[in-house]
């Protein structure tokens, strides 16, 4: 009997003739080829993966695509953020040419956000743009980076400085691959999950509180429901504002300080999600002061992050260094960092400018209040 694995939910990113499905479910990798054929894809494809993911999943992915009639080439880059580089990109162009990838061919990104961004940008730029499919293997890639069409590489001067909007043809999120994701990477991805509750959906936030134990234990039934809701929210935000003219900026909640912590702390010290968790705790505290978020709700945000084993206390970075990093961020306009702040759970305001004095004061006092709250009420 022909089976397409167990799709538990299909979320559609509605973008007119560039709309695409996100398939979410179990054992989907083995059926990635048939799913792609159903989506109208065929011909030659190049799977791009990294040195951690390829030994685990390249054979299954290649087999699934070949089994469905695709001619398959593979390309490998070292695992890790440094691979989002011009050097790796140009090596992939060489390989694509050597394999005979033409304008009808397809790039398949099999990996976390690094592979999705790099392979996506390869697809966006090679021969002025060819089609690509995302097979995200990290939690962060499933709930965030594989959806929405942002692709790109880093420059020595900074992250994501070269890129393009290029939507995939489909996203295939197989929950089973999360079993091999290192625990720290998995937990880090949960920060982005919490973010969706805060920025868009208070009910979902409540659901996350209820199922925090299952989430932490990586119960794949819980995880697949959670991934599906995150993708629905991201799909809706992208539908309304594909190129970040306004609404899409809500996705940056916790990221203004989070990016600065990643940067000033030295890349590699904190994972992205860990820095974002600290940034969200901070943004919640600033929100109480500036946008009227109830203190009880700010505490709920921090409590959930803690339950998910994410860091919330500010790191040992000097405010001046973070401040400098925030004003260098590419999303800063006119040298003033913009904060996404919460008004209530599920509702945020995207363009808050807050006086530097207030920002500093919250930064310098938040750890003490977080500790009191930890000792006193939990
Ligand atoms: N395009 C976007 O909209 C967007 C959004 C958020 C983040 N990003 C980008 O995403 C990147 C971070 O993504 P990430 O956190 O997935 O990092 P990553 O791709 O480096 O993956 C994290 C680590 O986990 C490994 N891995 C991934 N899946 C695995 C699996 N199933 N089993 C075993 N190991 C596995 C990887 O090899 C890597 O070592 C950053 O470059 C960031 O800029 C992009």
How would you describe this protein?
- With 378 residues, the protein is an alpha/beta fold.
- The protein has 2 domains: 175 residues, Rossmann fold (3-Layer(aba) Sandwich); 195 residues, Dehydroquinate synthase-like, alpha domain (Up-down Bundle), CATH 1.20.1090.10.
- Helices cover 48% and strands 19% of the residues.
- The chain contains 14 helices and 11 strands.
- A 7-stranded mixed β-sheet has the order 1-2-9-6-5-3-4, sandwiched between helices. Strands 7-8 form a two-stranded antiparallel ribbon. The protein has a two-stranded antiparallel sheet with strand order 10-11.
- β3, α2 and β4 form a beta-alpha-beta unit.
- It starts with 5 loop residues before the first strand and ends with a helix.
- The site of nicotinamide-adenine-dinucleotide (NAD) has 29 residues, from α4, α5 and β8.
